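Hi support team,

I've been running sequence recovery on a batch of backbones for a student project. Most finish fine, but this one hangs at about 90% for roughly twenty minutes before it completes. I'm not sure whether the input is malformed or the queue is just slow. I've pasted the structure tokens below so you can try to reproduce it. Let me know if you need the job ID as well.

Thanks,
M.K.
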């Protein structure tokens, strides 16, 4: 991992002009070991951001794809006091996904297991694909901040269940 100044990182993002930005991290806590064991997604703390609704949709899509295989925090998170620069200042839909905790032994074992790492990568990819396949105008009306609601899929302009979407994708 190479440290890059957040402003320089934003220059790279703006030069790339992505459809969406997903920053993938492993979290930590202040204590030496933690029992925390969950996938978390952070979105901008600035609810006036022009991409706020799309970021919520992206974050919800990521959580909904991860929930079948990994413990998740079902609420989209926001850092109110100290934001996340590349999320708060991003001109594109943007989220940060925390894939467990570096100071949780079980999470470390999962991260070192190639099959589990692949499973997490696929869940993230499926979340991005679900977000990309959604009709943004229709989907903005059904954005869910928790995974207690049905997954966010739009197929041919209609809400579709996760099971029907998987059939369509052949997954």
């Amino acid at each position: 991992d190479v440290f890059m100044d957040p402003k320089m990182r934003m220059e790279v993002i703006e030069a790339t002009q992505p459809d969406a930005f997903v920053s993938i991290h492993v979290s930590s806590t202040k204590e030496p070991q933690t029992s925390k064991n969950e996938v978390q997604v952070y979105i901008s703390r600035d609810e006036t951001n022009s991409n706020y609704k799309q970021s919520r949709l992206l974050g919800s899509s990521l959580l909904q794809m991860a929930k079948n295989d990994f413990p998740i925090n079902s609420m989209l998170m926001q850092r109110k006091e100290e934001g996340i620069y590349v999320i708060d200042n991003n001109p594109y839909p943007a989220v940060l996904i925390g894939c467990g905790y570096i100071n949780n032994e079980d999470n470390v074992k999962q991260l070192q297991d190639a099959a589990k790492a692949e499973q997490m990568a696929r869940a993230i990819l499926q979340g991005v694909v679900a977000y990309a396949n959604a009709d943004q105008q229709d989907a903005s009306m059904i954005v869910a901040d928790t995974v207690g609601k049905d997954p966010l899929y739009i197929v041919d302009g209609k809400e579709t269940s996760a099971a029907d979407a998987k059939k369509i994708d052949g997954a």
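--
Follow-up from support: It reproduced on our side and the slowdown came from queue contention, not your input. Helices lie at 6-16, 52-66, 85-88, 105-112, 114-133, 136-139, 162-169. No action needed from you.
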